[in-house]
Amino acid sequence: MDATTCEYIDRLINIEMRPGSGLPRGVTHQMYAAAREAQNDQPLTFLAAEALIKALSKGDHVLVVTGAGTAPWLPKGETDGPMGAAAVARALDIGIGAKPVMISETRNMGPVIGSVEGIGLAIADEADFPKRGGVTVAREMPLGLEAGATFVDAIFAEFSPRAIVFVEKGGPGISGNFHSLLGTARDPDDMACAHLLVEEAKKRGVLTIGVGDGGNEIGYGKIRDAITKIQPHGPKVGTVTETDILISTAVSNWGGYGIAAALAGLLGNPDVIHSVDDEYRMLDRCIAAGAMDGLLMRVVPYVDGTSTPVQGAMITMLREIVTNSLRTINRDF
Amino acid sequence: MHIAADAIDRVISVEMRRRGRERGFKAALAAVCREAEDRPLVLAAAEALDREPARITIVTGAALPDHMPVGENDGPFGAAVLAQKLEKIGHTVTICSDAECIPPIVGLLKFLGANASVLTLRKGDTAQQDEILEQSDMLIAIERLGGNPNGHLHGISGAVRDPYRTNVDYLFNQARERGKRTIAIGDGGNEIGFGKVRDALMAAIPGHNQEQRTPCGGGIFSTVATDILVFGTSSNIGAYGVLAALAMVRGDTSLCHDPDIEEQLHYVGVGLGLTDGGGGGVVPVCDGIPADCNAAIVRLIENIAIRYLDEPKVRPF
Lengths: 333, 317
What we know:
The structure holds 2 protein chains of 2 kinds.
Chain A: H1 3-13, H2 28-37, H3 44-55, E1 61-66, H4 82-96, E2 99-104, H5 109-119, E3 122-123, E4 135-140, H6 145-159, E5 163-167, E6 178-179, E7 185-186, H7 195-204, E8 207-212, H8 224-230, H9 234-237, E9 245-248, H10 252-267, H11 276-288, E10 302-303, E11 306-307, H12 308-325
Parallel strand pairs in A: 1-2, 1-5, 2-4, 3-4, 5-8, 8-9
Antiparallel strand pairs in A: 6-7, 10-11
Chain B: H1 2-11, H2 26-35, H3 41-49, E1 55-59, H4 76-88, E2 92-97, H5 102-112, E3 117-120, H6 126-134, E4 138-142, H7 169-177, E5 181-186, H8 198-204, E6 228-231, H9 235-250, H10 259-271, E7 285-286, E8 289-290, H11 291-309
């Protein structure tokens, strides 16, 4: 496994294939190019996997933060986010033995729990969590800045996390409001203010990784100038929250899968990236818990307008890239 | 359309190779090919194919005694699927190849229910190539070796292939002189078509030319140019990308290749003796990538075309 393999992974997870839905198209590769330029022109999944392996040892806590969408359109959030977060949590559990803590709003927690259980992580009670692998705990982050700050203090006190991964987690724009990609504003009182986790992590030197696909998600503060130019509503919606590493991708879940694939390769263990069957179970569980497709706004097995078999195809190809990186071909003609 | 077609160009050029062979060069090849065209590569090819019914000749096939006795599966799959779909829009298709490669191509056409005729190429027979030209309105090369500056054919690692393949440089060079449209689909730089970007390849990835490994010293890059050059991670995948673009151009998703058929083709290919050019076995693998993974790529390509042709659903927030 090497950086070349992560070039393959980066390229695959940056294929834009969303439908024409009023959302801007043709922007994915521009955002990716900007993210790369801002990060020493290294493959982004390589940077993230390498940093996670360096930061985390067996038994260390890692916060995995996700959840996007508000009522009335996405009352329990969307399918993009929870599944990518679950894949990262699973990868860190299997690959490193780290202890993932899932964080989301109360309204989005059902699909987050559905996703982690669907991919093979059980929700443990407080007593069992430290004692075994294959489990996670879920923590609901309250809405608003004030309650959020109290929560951040408590979560750092309880877990002393060594890393935080944000997947499709909205961050505030320059006005302090949160925004949809099309510029609809959301008051901080209606959102989990997860950027407060980033601020605390920075004070403590804790690794932060942001995964997003639009420019309004936590992490994109790193390339805010580029977002203001690339996204039609960029100046308003581009978040100011910057993480140590930013993964820009076509669909945020795929960014999470890309991290899992890169971890699988670097750790030499193909099982660190989940299987196609895991993917289908996870998507079923995620929508059964009420998550909707973020573009279609319905409880259907789609992610950002792409179908179930497309998610399976993405996993098939990622697994192929990983296994190929771990074996050598011998053709003598 | 350009945005979706560019996405297809990207997905068909994702490299997934194993260690042990040259790695990490396909993105550069893809970029060089794209720079030589003013639009996405698959779109350029699709627009050329979206024409009044025409006589289209496809040249493919790569056999090698002992190692790949009836040829490799990269090329024939793409050629047969392309033939099947081009017939759907009214074209008359002939697939040309070396004698050893013809039986499996016939088998693939039969499996797909395609009517294309086949023609056996004769080595060193320029008159035959003149004849083919007269009977063609358009020519397509898929994974078909093209000569280097010294006119020699080479495998990707620099081995000479002249004794085993009919050289069709004349056919494609003449076609351009006579104003017949030519399209090439390749994956390595040593095939027909890459003459279009040879100088740029020499500048971008000179090491990949491997002069030192070719006995004549001319390297593997082909000098034979075509009007349009499409790059794929394998040539078959490149052909499927062209079909998805054709589906978008004509508003007909049935022109996309089907992922399930793609998987089946690999097994049919095994029955016909076709070899995986990646590992050298008669296995359901193409250029080192197994059937289910190639089907996955076809799924993504198809999805891009379907999503593009979908009724727009406008999100209100």
